[in-house]
Amino acid sequence: MSGYDLLARALDACGREGWTGLLRVSGSPGGILHLRDGLVVCVESPGAPGAEALLLRSGRVSGEQWAALVREAGGARWPAAGLIAHGYAGAAQLRVVCVMALQDAAFAVVAGRVEGCERAAHGIEPPAPVPVGEPPARLLEDAARKLAALAALPHPVHPDRERPLPTREFEGPLTELRRDLLAHADGRRTARDLAFRTGRGVYTVTVELGRMLGEGLLECAPAPAPIPVRTPPDGIRHRTPLPPAPPPPEPAPPVDLPRRRPGGFFRLRHGTPR
User: Does domain 164-220 bear CATH number 1.10.10?
Assistant: First the structure.
């Protein structure tokens, strides 16, 4: 069974049973899907920026203001009430940001490698939950449609594979997204890395990188060539192993010397004593 089918089966069962809790998806990047009454209300994944990053990137609230809101809310992971009360964002805008983060994280999970799914009871309140959850089937269909759109590009890009870099200095008009991507693409960052770096959705960044590759604004560095191994002109000569050393000779058996009688020494040198 493929990873997609494994995830689809697990989510379908959660939806039919009206499950409320967590569905932990192991793999790369993997993630956690929060469900309420069988509907997905939040998706967290290390493969996609969360709602906080998307909101901060919009410029509606600064990092210092966000930290103050979190302290004011007693450490809440998503201080929605404070954002609205202080006029940083409206309720409608927050709903849009939450839906975008949920769908983007689901795409990152589906685009990666799914190794297993495991249910767990709810622990803490999910960050940035959507007021009305997403049906699991529709969420997976949306992620599959995005994957198909990426594959149809002239230069398909995977969120965690290609590492593009600019081809040349470009002085023409560019969108803000393209300027940011050209500024941060250095041949070491993937689409996922650039999404976190620029505070944008990983799907949006991946699609734009594919288009920029097709237009020649970016290129992918070739893989390093293997290090050549030098061999002698007449080929590799195998050394003939030396014969084993002969075993050491066995020690000679002890020789029994004749025992001397008492006084024999004097008889030999001085004769028989008188």
Answer: yes
